[in-house]
Design goal:
Helix content is about 55%, strand content about 10%. The chain is mostly helical and about 375 residues long. A hairpin with a 2-residue loop joins strand 9 and strand 10 (about 320-325).
């Protein structure tokens, strides 16, 4: 085991592809296992080194698996192979079986993440096995919309309407062609959850009481960037470009240090910065407009992705030839132990392991980051 630093200041797309391959290989070797020995299934073990609960999928975390599928789609899109194309439906099948109740649960954010990953799997890789699950999730998300407020709640029966649910639901709706519904959600977020001072997106609001929850999380910014970019592309409405430009500027000012996305954590928080990076990359390659402010915004988004990826790579650990990424990309990664495993809370969230690097969520964000760096570099950004 050694810690290495890369000295190439401007890696090529080919080099980012090699690094993404290694990030994928690390997840496959450390985390991917069949579900209870059932043929044709796979799931991500949520910690490495794993506890018995992890190995038997007593702990499994639905929405982490959705992001595992999304990363698997990234790899297959970048370089299709039979193994990659088999992996996608295998994880989807694992999610459906382990979930006990099929494709759905009570959390709209969870279901939206799975819908996004399945939609990409079908659209970009032609994975027909996910079609029924996607149709079921589409109906759940569409029917979960509350017209009184113009949004979906965090979970069924909740009075909490938050960005982590509405952002991905909006993205899913846009990609499924439900642009009017996606625009309603976009308007709700901009009118209700945008901090007028910083320009960043608050966590959520209790309705009808109007009590705001004002923490700032990086993934809230990411999903709103993604939603506004999708709508800018598909509707041509300039308000979505304007919102994306404004939010990107706020992210640069408040959430980036030295060109790198700042902070980090484990548990559910291990995915937060990776989600922001995914949608910064999407903004970089998709945001419309040829005026200087549009061109500069795309370049700025790409630069944050590249700089964050370089920092994460330089601060990784190599464990048996495969990378282990740190939860904070600006700091050296730490080798985790089995003690202090993360756990689910009564509120439905997942706490960090004592060593955040242990968590699958953290390593998925590292994989997202390598794929995103390849995406923007291959696009010439």
């Amino acid at each position: 085991m050694t810690s290495r630093t890369g000295r190439n200041t401007e890696p090529t797309a080919a080099l980012w592809a090699e690094r993404a391959d290694l990030a994928e290989s690390a997840i496959v070797s450390r985390h991917l296992r069949s579900l209870w020995g059932i043929p044709g299934t796979s799931l991500g073990v949520v910690g490495w080194p794993p506890t018995k609960r992890d190995r038997t999928f007593t702990s499994w975390h639905y929405w982490w698996q959705a992001h595992l599928i999304d990363c698997a789609v990234d790899a297959a899109n970048r370089h299709p192979t039979p193994a990659r194309q088999r992996r996608i439906p295998a994880v989807a099948k694992g999610v459906r079986i382990r979930n006990m109740r099929g494709w759905t649960n009570n959390y709209y954010d969870d279901m939206a993440w799975l819908a996004i990953s399945l939609e990409r799997a079908e659209r970009t890789q032609g994975i027909e096995e996910v079609r029924r699950g996607l149709a079921i999730l589409d109906k759940e998300l569409y029917d979960g919309f509350d017209p009184r407020f113009g949004a979906v709640p965090w979970r069924k029966g909740s009075d909490f309407f938050n960005a982590p649910a509405n952002g991905p639901v909006g993205i899913a709706m846009a990609r499924l062609g439900r642009y009017a519904r996606a625009q309603e959600i976009s308007d709700f977020i901009d009118n209700t959850l945008r901090d007028k001072e910083s320009g960043l997106i608050f966590d959520g609001i209790h309705l009808p009481s109007g009590e705001l929850e004002t923490p700032i999380y990086s993934y809230c910014q990411g999903v709103v960037l993604g939603l506004e970019t999708e709508l800018a592309v598909h509707t041509g409405d300039t308000r979505h470009v304007e919102r994306a430009l404004r939010l990107l500027s706020a992210v640069e000012e408040s959430l980036v240090a030295g060109g790198v996305v700042a902070g980090g954590g484990g548990g559910d928080g291990g995915l937060f910065n990776g989600i922001l990076i995914r949608y910064l990359a999407l903004t970089a390659v998709m945001l419309p407009g040829e005026e200087p402010e549009h061109v500069n915004a795309r370049r700025s988004a790409a630069a944050i992705v590249r700089n964050s990826a370089k920092a994460a790579w330089e601060n990784r650990l190599d464990v048996e030839g495969e990378p282990l990424f740190g939860h904070d990309w600006r700091q050296p990664a730490q080798l985790p132990g089995i003690k202090g495993a993360g756990h689910s809370t009564p509120g439905g969230s997942v706490k960090s392991s004592r060593s955040p690097e242990r968590d699958l969520s953290v390593q998925l964000s590292g994989w997202k980051l390598m794929e995103a760096a390849h995406t923007v570099t291959a696009a010439g950004l």
